[in-house]
Amino acid sequence: MGRLWQTLILSSWQPLLAYLPVETVIKNRQQDYYRLLGEADKQADCSAFIEFLLQSIQESLHEAIASQNSPETRVETRGETRGETRVETPKAKTEDRILEVLETRPELSLAEVAATIGRSVSAVERAAAKLKAEKRLIYEGSKKDGKWKVLS
C-alpha cells in the first residue's frame, strides 16, 4: 500500500514517474527493503529507508532510459532510408506495442513494458488481459522466473 502511495505522490509531482519500474527494482532488492523498513520502524528514524527508496527510483530512471535507448525496444518503421530506426509512434495500438516489446524481451514485467512503451501500468495490464483472452499472449512459468510468449 505504501508503494502505491509513493507512486501516486511522485506521479502527481511529476507524471512521468508513474511509468518507472520501481516495483521491479524493489522486488530485486526485497530483503534490503524489508530490513530497512523494519529498522526504520524500530529506530523511529526512516532516513536509511528513504535513501533506499530514492536510490531505487534513481535506478529505475536509469533502467527506463537505458531501455528506451536499447536496440531491443526500437521498432523499424516503413519507408525509412539509410538504415535508420525510430521508436514507433505513440498512435500505435497499445496491444500491438506490447506484443512487439515482449517478442524481443519476454522476461519483462508488465510494469517494465508500460515504462518502455510510455503507457500506464493499468492500461498495459488491461491490454495484456485482452491479449490473453484472445489467445495472442500467454505467461509461462512462475511469477518470479516466468516469461511471456507471443502467439501468432
Shape, please? elongated
Distance between the termini: 37 Å
Q: Given the structure, what is the number of helices?
A: 7
List the helices and strands in order. HHHHHHHEE
Percentage of residues in DSSP E strands: 5-15%
Structural class: mainly alpha
> Spans of 5+ residues with little confidence (pLDDT < 50)?
73-91
Labels describing this entry:
Arc Repressor Mutant, subunit A, single chain, 2 domains, 2 strands, two-stranded antiparallel ribbon, mainly alpha, 152 residues, elongated
Structure description:
The chain is 58% helix and 5% strand. The longest helix has 23 residues, at 47-69. Helix 2 crosses helix 4 (47-69) and helix 6 (110-117) crosses helix 7 (121-133). The protein is built from seven helices and two strands; from the N terminus they run αααααααββ. It has two domains: 2-69; 86-150, Arc Repressor Mutant, subunit A (Orthogonal Bundle), CATH 1.10.10.10. A two-stranded antiparallel ribbon has the order 1-2. It has helices spanning 2-13, 22-28, 30-43, 47-69, 94-104, 110-117, 121-133; strands at 137-140, 147-150. The N and C termini lie far apart (37 Å). The protein is mainly α and 152 residues long.
